[in-house]
Amino acid sequence: MQPQDLAKFRKLFIEQRQVLLGNQDRLGWNEGSNLVLSKEALFDEGDLCAAETEQRVQLRLRDRERNLLKKIHEALDRMNKGEFGLCSDCGDTIDVRRLQARPVTTLCIQCKEEQERKESTFAQLA
Ligand SMILES: [Zn+2]
Predict the structure, then answer these.
(1) Which residue has the higher pLDDT, 124 or 58?
(2) What is the pLDDT of residues 73-103, one digit of tens each?
(3) Claim to verify: residue 108 and residue 49 sit in the same structural domain
(4) Distance from residue 117's CA to the centre of ligand 1 (Å)
(5) Ligand 1: distance of its center to the CA of 91 in Å?
(6) Whether residues 27 and 78 fall in one domain
(7) What residue numbers bound the domain in which 50 lies?
(8) Distance, CA 103 to ligand 1 centroid (Å)?
(9) What's the predicted TM-score (pTM) here?
(10) Residue 109 to residue 24: CA distance in whole angstroms
(11) 74, 40: one domain
(12) For the purposes of burial, counting CB atoms within 10 Å of the CB of 71, is it exposed (0-12), middle (13-18) or buried (19 or more)?
């Protein structure tokens, strides 16, 4: 990978991390595992249901963001080790266009397809 590409990805990850960490504060990740419903949300008892739905959506979003944050940390870690852009399975270089579409990926397209094929086989067996 070209150094300028690497620099671009690093910048992207750092920016994304900042956004995600900002969201973390907004969603109250540091205040224990339960989200506290805001006073506005509880103001009208009739809205409680909507507030609960909203909370569920937020929780799902939070899980996804936390997962992404973890992947970004791992990607930065790989960058520091000089392994970013290499497939974690076969060690081949991951196509830069694939990385642009999905920067946190750790698999080249062949290994990814292989993995998906296995997963769908397991899904059929289950
Ligand atoms: Zn591979």
Answers:
(1) 58
(2) 999 999 999 999 999 999 999 999 999 999 9
(3) no
(4) 14
(5) 6
(6) yes
(7) 1-84
(8) 15
(9) 0.71
(10) 32
(11) yes
(12) middle
